[in-house]
């Protein structure tokens, strides 16, 4: 499958890894929108939240907790941070392998700003 983030998980495209386990991979965004901008993904290919199924519930819980972990490891535990996932055309989703952005390290703008 021609998926950028599957290739990042496989290691055929390089990335700056911040966390990995059996199910989850997390790395630095190549074009950071905040002082800390990480991406947390399941190793399993799911195109977006729209394609997630009930059987993915535990996996998505693992991804969410990995987002908490990498945010804390980046020093954002006290200051706070934003976790978001874009879904489809109107959101501006560019990479169709579900990913959770972890943004922080500064006061973030209001959503839709
Ligand atoms: P989306 O708009 O799909 O929610 O976000 C995709 C994100 O992936 C963007 O923030 C973009 O900067 C990031 N990105 C795109 N290509 C690469 C890449 O090759 N490596 C890394 N580390 N991030 C990427
Ligand atoms: Zn993929």
TrEMBL record:
Cited InterPro entries: Histidine_triad_CS, Histidine_triad_HIT, HIT-like, HIT-like_sf
Residue window of motif Histidine triad motif: 97-101
Record-annotated HIT domain positions: 4-113
Protein name per its UniProtKB record: Histidine triad nucleotide-binding protein
Organism of this sequence: Cohnella xylanilytica
MF annotations from Gene Ontology: catalytic activity
Pfam families found in the cross-reference section: HIT
Active-site residue numbers: 99 (tele-amp-histidine intermediate)
């Amino acid at each position: 499958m021609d998926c950028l983030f599957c290739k990042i998980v496989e290691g055929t495209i390089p990335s700056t890894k911040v966390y990995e386990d059996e199910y989850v991979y997390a790395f630095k965004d190549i074009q950071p929108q905040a002082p800390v901008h990480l991406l947390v993904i399941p190793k399993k290919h799911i195109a977006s939240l729209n394609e997630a199924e009930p059987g993915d519930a535990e996996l998505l819980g693992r991804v969410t907790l990995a987002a908490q972990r990498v945010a804390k490891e980046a020093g954002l535990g006290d200051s706070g941070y934003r976790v978001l996932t874009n879904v489809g055309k109107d959101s501006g989703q560019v990479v169709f392998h579900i990913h959770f952005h972890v943004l922080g390290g500064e006061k973030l703008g209001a959503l839709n700003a």
